[in-house]
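Progress report, Aim 2. The chain analyzed during this reporting quarter is listed below.
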Amino acid sequence: MQHIYDQFIADLLNTRWYEYLAVAFGIISVWYSRRENILVYPTGLINTIIYIYLSAKGHLLGEATVNLYYTIMSISGWYMWGKKNAVNEKVLHISFSTNKERMQQLLFFAVFYAVIFFALSYFKKMFFDGVIPWADALASATAFTGMWLMTKKKVESWYWWIATNVASIPLYFVKHYVFTSVYYVVLLIMAIAGLLAWVQKVKEQRRASVAAKTITF
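Predicted structure tokens for the chain:
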């Protein structure tokens, strides 16, 4: 425990300003996502662009790829969340996945995990000794899945975010990004809160829909 504490303090003192900036905007972005606010995307872009650099620097190639994917999907999600119909109402609403969609999500995760794992295993052998294939692939594949579902406003996205955060806490700690490791602890708590908030919103939407149908009838 003393060794872990000493490493934490030493690495915290060596944390660069841009890592603090990335963490701050990451927390702001998750806060906006919990509130279903479209500002989740512009704030998130600042976070992901910085983390592309940090992850590549720490030989976390899977995480670097994830943050590049985040950047692309943030632009897509920004567009999808902002879409409105002819009467200026939001087109996309928070919803639960169907059983078929859940199976698709598991398949999506499995494919990305396998691809990332074998790619990182190759990179570890040929280029970067510091790569941790199974852990990096787990954090990356769950994040790929979570971001994909977030752009579709699926409640299940939060389960994948929770898995990503749990995997990322020790992954970044062993790479000496301890401030980022603590950041993922905060994100884990916020992801649980986000899950509860979105479940509550779906329930409210359903009650409103039932009430509207009753009035119409």
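Residues 34 and 197 are 7 Å apart (CA to CA). Residues 178-216 form the longest helix (39 residues). These observations will guide the mutagenesis work planned for the next reporting period.
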